[in-house]
Amino acid sequence: MVGMRVLLIEDDVSISSAVIDSLEAVGWDVGHEAAGVPGLERLGSQSWDVLLLDLGLPDLDGIEVARQARAIGTFPIIVISARGDESDRVLALELGADDYLVKPFGMRELLARIRAVHRRAIAVGEPAAATELVVGKLRVDTRTRRVMLGEHVLDLTPKEFDVLAYLARDPGSAHRRETIMQDVWDMNWYGSTKTLDAHVASLRSKLGDARWIEAVRSVGFRLQEPA
Ligand code: CA
Question: How far is the CA of 54 from the centre of ligand 1 (A)?
């Protein structure tokens, strides 16, 4: 992880200076902006490995910054926020944030989370031996991240793709909600799985038939071609 480039968008000086010190102490490059608009500009003008994003910014809401950041690139996003509300967490994760850290947090915890999302991003980017998962008419290419249903390309969000690819690795099996959350969002999830349910609902609608993803009572979900 030498030379990891982290962009921090945070207006609170005490937090940003602590974060910058800790990250630079392990030899990483840190860029810092104190507001959403310059942050997004900086994000687009250089290449970054991870974005650390505060939600309470002086110009744009961090949720909006996360949404626009997703359109700029596929780097992992960690939201750091004093807002620990479930609605904020769910919204941030739905918009493509990879992790969510509630203030105050320890610097060791932050470093561990950054390493975890970065490792995961690298693993996703590595070409695997077999990149296409086939379930009936459904073809999920994990290298190009393209999904075909018959002749049609499905337009999925990054997290919808991850959920579908996770299920497609072992079609027909019932996967636990917590395990899917842990794999796709790379986090220990002790609370609600509303985010996952929202992604499944959206996937079912894009697949055009809810039976593709069957809810398995008190377990989770299974992917299978509708009979
Ligand atoms: Ca703030």
Answer: 6
Would you kindly state where each structural domain of the chain is located, as residue ranges? Answer: 5-122, 128-223
In angstroms, what is the span from residue 34 Cα to ligand 1's centroid? 9
One fold for 5-122 and 128-223: no
pTM, to two decimals = 0.58
CATH placement of domain 128-223: 1.10.10.10
* Angle subtended at Cα 222 by Cα 203 and Cα 134, rounded to the nearest 5 degrees: 75
Alpha-carbon gap, residue 58 to 37, rounded angstroms: 10
Q: What is the CA(117)–ligand 1 centre distance, in A? A: 22
- Contact between residue 76 and residue 92 where contact means Cβ atoms under 8 Å apart: no
pLDDT, one tens digit per residue, over 123-175 is 766 544 557 889 999 999 987 888 999 989 999 998 999 999 999 988 999 99
Could you tell me the distance, in angstroms and rounded to a whole number, from the CA of residue 197 to the centre of ligand 1?
A: 30
Q: Superfamily assignment of 5-122 in CATH?
A: Response regulator (3.40.50.2300)
